[in-house]
Automatic annotation (TrEMBL):
Annotated protein name in UniProt: Threonylcarbamoyl-AMP synthase
Species name: Candidatus Nomurabacteria bacterium RIFCSPLOWO2_01_FULL_36_16
Domain (YrdC-like) ranges: 13-199
GO MF entries: ATP binding; double-stranded RNA binding; L-threonylcarbamoyladenylate synthase; tRNA binding
Role noted for this protein: Required for the formation of a threonylcarbamoyl group on adenosine at position 37 (t(6)A37) in tRNAs that read codons beginning with adenine.
Length: 339
């Protein structure tokens, strides 16, 4: 196992070449993106991609997002690329938007979860782009965490989950956004958001007109990562508290008192507006003010992982406004809280 520290501003080309050689020989590399860290394999090496499922303990029907570095890579993966896709790529790539497109035969069913579609995005991170270019092949890469657990937003999270099971880890500091990309299915009409992220429905509608949210019925085929009901989950039970700040404080205090009487170790995820009333908890993480949703998103998975490290029995989290990236925050919290 090797850890390569690569500054995204001053990229060490020799380190990129080392990591690229590891990928070309069929091994796995953990690398940074602007959303979360990914665990990558050469998309056209079936044996390498299969290792991702083994290491992550990932179900075979859960597709993997493929990362590209230039538009010419898209032609290797997708057929019948619609004008809608080209329009969105022009405006949002590189960036936190994944597009579901009809796949080419050359893309293995292992990558796509036995779907006839492929999920593709171009990450907005100089290290990720340099690595993909050096490999000279798109990289299949889900988030670098054990399946069902909170995503890795820095290399330490991935190391904690995988240790020496991964040949190379690239450490470029914390992920900028902290939540996974928006996933948009362009093979259906109207286009459908399968997973919310930083690129919101309102933004996408400015370019496409009508866009709908996915209902995520449990019997539907999984077209995108993040569609499993229990996902992003800490080891502790997660309890969500709804309402305005005054109601949230009242509910949190009641729950905290109840769980402490039961002898539980309790962690609380709070905003700056509510934190003063949570001091009797065993551990408290302040994400942000309730208005600063970007900061809340950035810190969410780090908070969940911290509580696992502290061996909390219960996590109580306030809910956040479902505007802008707040919708993605609540998507992750609700899935993490699903028993």
């Amino acid at each position: 196992m090797k850890i390569l520290k690569i500054d995204p501003v001053h990229i060490k080309s020799d380190f990129i070449r080392q990591a690229a050689r590891v990928l070309r020989r069929g091994s796995l590399v953990v690398f940074p993106t602007e959303t979360v860290y990914g665990i990558g394999a050469d998309v056209f090496n079936e044996k390498a991609v299969a290792k991702i499922f083994i290491v992550k303990q990932r179900m075979a029907d859960n597709p993997i997002i493929v990362h590209i570095a230039q538009m010419s890579d898209l032609k290797k993966l997708a057929r019948n690329v619609l004008p809608q896709a080209l329009l969105l790529a022009k405006h949002f790539w590189p960036g936190p938007l994944t597009l579901i497109l009809s796949k080419k035969r050359e893309v293995s069913q292992i990558v796509t979860g036995d779907n006839d579609t492929v999920a593709v995005r171009m990450p907005d991170h100089p290290v990720a782009l340099a690595l993909i270019k050096a490999v000279k092949s798109p990289i299949a890469a889900p988030s670098a965490n054990l399946s069902g657990k909170p995503s890795a937003t820095d290399v330490a999270h991935a190391l904690s989950d995988f240790g020496d099971k991964i040949d190379v880890y690239i450490d470029s500091g914390p992920a900028k956004i902290g939540l996974e990309s928006t996933v948009l299915d362009l093979t259906v009409n109207p286009p459908e958001i399968l997973r919310p992220g930083a690129i919101t429905k309102e933004i996408l509608q400015k370019f496409l007109g009508r866009v709908v949210d996915n209902k995520n019925h449990p019997k539907n085929k999984i077209r995108s990562p993040g569609m499993k009901y229990r996902h992003y989950a800490p080891n502790a039970r997660l309890v969500l508290v709804n309402g305005n700040p005054k109601i949230i404080v009242k509910k949190m205090q009641a729950l905290l008192g109840k769980f402490k009487k039961e002898g539980k170790k309790v962690g609380i995820i709070a905003s700056k507006e509510t934190v003063a009333h949570c001091r009797q908890a065993d551990s408290v993480v302040i994400l942000s003010t309730r208005r600063n949703l970007k900061m809340a998103a950035h810190k969410l998975f780090r908070a969940l992982r911290r509580f696992d490290d502290e061996r909390m029995d219960i996590i109580i989290s306030e809910t956040f406004p479902e505007r802008d990236i707040g919708k993605a925050i609540m998507n992750r919290l609700r899935k993490a809280a699903t028993s």
